[in-house]
Specification:
Blueprint lengths: L9 H14 L5 H13 L16 H15 L4 H5 L1 E4 L2 E4 L9 H11 L2 H4 L5 E5 L5 H9 L4 E6 L2 H13 L6 E5 L11 E6 L6 H4 L4 H4 L15 H13 E10 L5 H10 L3 E7 L5 E7 L2
Parallel strand pairs: 3-4, 3-6, 4-5, 6-7
Antiparallel strand pairs: 1-2, 7-9, 8-9
Length: 290
């Protein structure tokens, strides 16, 4: 379906768009229609209903048709809109990096609550697998006295993280490294490591929903045969690069609490803790290097 300018009122356009998206198998078609309309109208989502009698201008109709076609092709909404909200801030988002999700906000909040890390003079904190930079940039914004470093193996993701740091005003206070995990850092040089590493088993990646499987970067999802390949290497390297009293915070899969707890203990971490997400699933793990 193509929407024409200066024709139907937004009330009719919204209903037709929802129906069109639903027919294409788009989940939460009504909510998605509201996001698309608010984007092309340049208003808040809740304001769309107040403009029910308005009609689309030519440029708006063209843009709506373009975005709707991308949604029907299976692209994630965040990529279609070009941004995602994370801890109250908008981050540019595109296929160069994994889409930031609410669980990762909890990880950042956990790290920010660790007063012992931030009480140090100029703490050095690394975000491993930075992607959009949502973790690193959020930490830099909230803790301006810290030295925040963003690491990613993907040059494309690292460029996106830098773009977000620049747009949010913290690029000059951050450092960016293209590297494999913590390979760029010396022993005992870090105060904290925060990471949302790939933790999905390779076999499971093929069964992910289409919008994830076909559009989000496999590098940021695939955690090896058991989902623990990257996590196990990260734990080992963090034990080597953290200072005494340094902390590691990671996002994990909801079935990985036991093996990750074991990996942390075997690497010498103490005060090992598993935390839950909004749905009560074990989704974060952390520990202290003694």
């Amino acid at each position: 379906m193509n929407f024409a300018p200066d024709k139907d009122a937004l009330r009719q356009v919204s209903a037709a768009l929802e129906s069109d998206l639903k027919s294409a198998g788009v989940e939460e078609a009504g909510l998605t229609a509201m996001y698309l309309l608010s984007h092309v109208l340049g208003c808040r989502r809740l304001e769309v209903g107040l403009r029910a009698q308005d009609v689309l201008a030519d440029a708006q109709a063209h843009e709506l048709n373009r975005l709707a076609a991308r949604m029907k092709a299976g692209e994630p909404l965040q990529y279609v809109l070009g941004d995602v909200e994370f801890l109250g801030r908008l981050f540019k988002t595109d296929p160069r990096a994994l889409i930031a999700r609410p669980e990762t906000e909890l990880l950042v909040e956990w790290a920010l609550a660790s007063s012992d890390v931030w009480a140090r003079s100029g703490p050095r904190v690394v975000d491993v697998g930075t992607g959009t930079g949502c973790i690193a940039v959020s930490l830099a914004l909230e803790r301006p006295a810290a030295r925040i470093m963003a690491v990613d193996l993907s040059a494309e993701a690292l460029a996106l993280a830098r773009e977000n740091a620049r747009s949010l005003g913290v690029e000059a206070r951050m450092a960016f490294y293209r590297a494999d995990l913590l390979a760029s850092f010396a022993p005992g040089s870090l105060d904290a490591v925060v990471s949302n590493p790939p933790y999905i088993a390779s076999e499971e990646c093929a069964r992910l929903p289409r919008h994830i499987r076909e559009h989000e970067p496999r590098l940021a999802l695939d955690g090896g045969s058991d989902g623990l390949f990257t996590i196990s290497r990260l734990v080992e390297q963090a034990a080597f690069t953290l200072k005494s009293g340094g902390r590691l915070y990671m996002e994990i899969g909801e079935e990985q609490a036991s093996p990750v707890r074991r990996l942390l203990a075997e690497a010498g971490f103490v005060q090992v803790e598993i935390r839950k997400d909004w749905n009560g699933h074990d989704r974060m793990a952390g520990g202290l290097k003694p």
